[in-house]
Amino acid sequence: MTRHASFWDRRRAAVRAEEEASLHAADEKVHAEEQAVLAEKTDAELLAEFDLPDPDTLKAGDDFTAFMARAIPEHLRRRALRKLWVSNPILACLDDLVDYADDYTQASAVTNFTTSYQVGKGLRRHIEDVAKKALALSEQEEAPEVVEEQQVVAQAALEPQTDVDVLDDQAETEAEIVTPRRMAFRFEEQTT
Fold first, then answer.
1. For the whole prediction, is pTM greater than 0.90?
2. Closest residue by Cα to residue 60 from 94, 40, 36, 86
3. What ranges do the domains of the chain cover?
4. Per-residue pLDDT tens for 131-158?
5. Three-class SS of residue 113?
6. Which residue, 13, 82, 94, 119, has fewest beta-carbon neighbours within 10 Å?
7. What's the pLDDT tens digit per position in 71-113?
8. CA distance 155 to 128
9. Contact criterion met (CB below 8 Å) for 84 and 64
10. Distance CA 105, CA 9 (A)
């Protein structure tokens, strides 16, 4: 049978949680200050201070756990992990079934990316621009009769169809479609 927590039990738990949060915040502040001091040092100085080998010289079978300590700066830890992944063929050989193996963080680095899609408008403006350019090119190269014919075709492509036009088109296509024959099975009675 569960006992409902009283007001004072909830209050004591809240005070304990606040104390733990303040201790955690103070610990994080001290850790950030230590990391800021370590960030000013070079990698060679940091490796000498923590008595660690150069991560680039490590090979398969070496102990990488020393780089996982909380006091080690993040960039040294990452260098050691990169070397670990390269040194162990089981870790280095990823199959293509890993969905998130690619680096998607650099999507913003793509430059000169444009699209003709407009929210709420679709690709209509792009199609109109392409049709205008095609008409302008054809006017320069071809005879006037052909240009007029192409303008009519391009204008018809740009004009939205009304419901009546769509229904007429559907009626014409339905008339052309021949209904398929259904399979018929006949079973003859076997006489014995």
1. no
2. 86
3. 12-94, 118-161
4. 888 888 877 775 555 556 656 656 655 5
5. coil
6. 119
7. 899 889 999 998 988 887 777 676 777 777 666 666 666 666 6
8. 9
9. yes
10. 46
